[in-house]
Each structure stands twice: as structure tokens, then as C-alpha cells.
Design goal:
The chain is of the alpha/beta class. The chain has helices at 38-56, 82-89, 94-111, 127-139, 217-228, 243-258, 289-294, 300-307, 319-339, 348-355, 360-372, 379-390, 405-419, 423-435, and strands at 4-7, 12-15, 22-27, 60-65, 143-145, 151-153, 192-197, 213-215, 233-239, 263-269, 272-274, 277-278, 315-317, 438-443, 446-451. The chain binds adenosine monophosphate and zinc ion. It is an enzyme of class 6 (ligase).
Length: 452
Amino acid sequence: MSLTLYDTATRALAKVSSTKDLTTIYCCGPTVYRDAHVGNLRTFLLSDLVRRTLELSGIKVKLIQNITDVGHMSEDLESEDKMLAQAKSEKTDPFAVARKYEARFHADLHNLNIRPADAYPRASESIDLMQTMIQELIEKGFAYVGDDKTVYFSAESFPGYGAISGNRLDALKPGHRYEYTEDGAKRFHADWALWKNAGERREMIWNSPWGAGFPGWHIECSAMSLDLLGGHINLHIGGIDLRFPHHENERAQSNAITGNESVDLWLHGEHLLFEGRKMSKSSGNVVLLTDVINRGFDPLAIRLCFLENRYRSQMDLTWAAIEAADATIKRWRKKIAIWGINEIDSSTEFLKIIENDLDTPRALQFLRNVEKDESHANRSGVFLFADQILGLDLARREEVKPLNQLQEALLAKREIARNEKRWEESDDLRQQLEATGLEIKDSSSGQTWDWL
Ligand code: AMP
Ligand code: ZN
């Protein structure tokens, strides 16, 4: 069996490749100038789902996710480094800002049961690596030093530009903001900065052969992915907004260095909306995982909400959906405890559904059918197998509030009434139990109860 995913570059489903028995994955990480919102987390979950699926089918995975702590320019006209702008507003050092939000990012991943990547390289600690790559690009004729002492990648020097996004150079018109920072000394409007001259900037700058400055955002991912994944990336993951220019530029840089197609498959996760609108500060609808926890929900309810939608469709999240997912997880945990934890049932059917382009909505439907199937011999085994990918902690025992004396007595009385086929009395007792907050269900094996 093997995993197929939708490749943005070829616009078709493709098998995830591996080199020997190892699949190398690079997932663009957070820019640590603020908390990640649940939209960002949807994209980070995508790499976790891919990784868990591959590992369950016996493939080894090496996953790298970078931490952008320098060089990501904000999109407003000021075009300021996001880290420096936030440090100014928090009246602190930009590195302190970076470490604070990086720690919170890891806490979010932990709360969402996202397994840690094999490494989280920081841009600010990979400056030498980037400078070496920039030097090589200059030597190979793909980059040049502008009059402003900024080093630019020459888009025209790379023949296959535009393959991921479809934005071919001849269609890219001057004036469009491809790169937020500078028009400066670029020779061509679609060129972008690899190394920016410090100018007036005093913080987060480093020496370089081209003068003091700091790296561009795109070169970071090329340098880290090629260095840490042995010069070839089987699968590259990010949110759909990164398709252009970030991934287009990254592809040009990496391929210029390696001389071949450095990434086999470009995977993009669609965006998350909240209550119908794109999640953003300006819409005022940013939701953090800590908001979900503070409202008393299990953070894994968010994970289930994401799984209810396929990664490449836009999805709309609401508080009602989170509440419903929270209830579903609790129900499944209780049922699994009642069914009894048996051997894990290696359900090839479940894996087959997931391996078909991560069809998590169908996989959940499959589980709901198993849930309803009273004749199934090992329902908990199937759920626990699935949970190795779903990551919903379904084996966890839910705290069940104990029954009070009245409820115990009514249940005992009702059982006797049922055994003696006194149905009217049994119905009456059911109503009394429901009035105390219990839900009563009858089946051939007897009555069961649950808190309403
Ligand atoms: P950033 O920290 O802004 O660099 O974004 C981190 C990741 O989150 C990137 O892969 C983005 O493409 C992704 N992302 C940003 N906004 C959303 C959203 N609303 N839904 C899903 N992914 C998003
Ligand atoms: Zn990236």
C-alpha cells in the first residue's frame, strides 16, 4: 500500500516517494512573532497526518520544520521585519519575542497531539548555511549583488520559473508586489532578495561578504531543507498561500543549486475560515488553541474538526462544530472503555481510505459505521488502530461522574421491572432517571446509562 497526495506542481495525484525506505519531508514552520492561530495549526497538522500514515504502513520518515525568526517582512507598506515590529510593540528584544512564541508553538503542537519533527532549525542560527548557498548562486550565475548591496535572485536566469503556481514570468507584470520588501536595485521586477543590506537597521543583522544585513525568507527554506534532508526532498508541505511566491522562489533557488528537481511533491493545505471569514487580526476572528481550552473543550476537538474536512478543501470552523467534536471524542472514549480494550485490529480498509489522498472525512464515516455495527467483534480494536493516525487519544478514560444514591436505586429497580416485564413501570422509572440528568438506553444485553 502507498500514500497518494495531490501534487500542486503537476495538478494530479501522485505517490509519495521515498529514497530507500525513508521519506524526507519539509514543512514550512511558523514565523514566531505571534501565537499560531488554529488556521496555522491546520497546516501543521497536515504534516503530522502524512507522517503518521507513512509510519503506520512501515515507512521511515524524516521531518524538518523551520522556525522563521528573522527575515519575514510584513505585508504592509512599511515592509518591516515582522519580528522587529513585534519587539517594538512589546518593548523587548526581538530574540526574546522569538523564543516566547516558539515555546508557545511547541505547546500548541503538544496539545494537538502533533508528533515533534526531527529538527526545528532556526533561521537566525542558519546564517552561515544561507550565506554559503547565496555565494554558490552568485557563482553559478543565478544571483547578483545590486547597487544597494542587496543580493537578488535573477528570476529570468531560472528557466522553469512558475511551475508550481502557474505564474510564468511573461505573465508577471511589474507593479505587482511579488516580494514585499524592495524595488531597490533589482534588475527585473520579479527578482527577489536573498540577502538584504542592513541599511539603517541595527538589530538582527549579521556580517556577510556583501556587507552587514539579514537573509530573505525564501532562501531560509531552501538552505535548511537541502542541508538537513540530504539534498533531496520527497515531500514539501505548506499552506496554500505559500504556493506563490514563497514556494515558487524556493524551488528556483533549490533547483538552481542541485541542478535537478529538488522536491518530488508539493503539498498544500487549504485555508481555514472561522465563522465564514478568513481568520485574520483585521477581521477580529483569530482563534487560538488556548481559547478553545479556556472554553473548557478538549483541544483535540479541534483536531477532530480538521479531520472532518479534507485537507485540500477550504473549511469553515465554528464554535458549534468544536462543541460537537468535543462531545464525539468523549462519546468514543466512553464507548471504547465499555467495549473493552482488545487487541488492535489492523484495519486495512481504514488505512486504504486514508492513503487515498488523506480522505479523513470518509475514514471518519467508516468509523461511525463500525460504531453502529453491534455485530462487530472488535470495535475498540478498529478505533484504536485508526487512532494511531487520528491522534484523538481514544484510549483515554473519560472521567465519569459517579451516580448518586437515588440514581443507583432507580436503576436497580428498573432492571428488576424489566426482567419481570413490567413495561409501564420501567417506562415510568426511565422518566424519573432522565429527570436526574441520565440518558437510558435498552438493548438485548440490558440497560445502559450515560450523563445527558
Ligand atoms: P506563518 O506563521 O504566518 O508563516 O504561517 C504558518 C503556516 O500557516 C503557513 O504554512 C501558512 O500557509 C499557514 N496558514 C496561514 N493562515 C492559514 C489559515 N487561515 N488556514 C490554514 N493555514 C494557514
Ligand atoms: Zn518555507
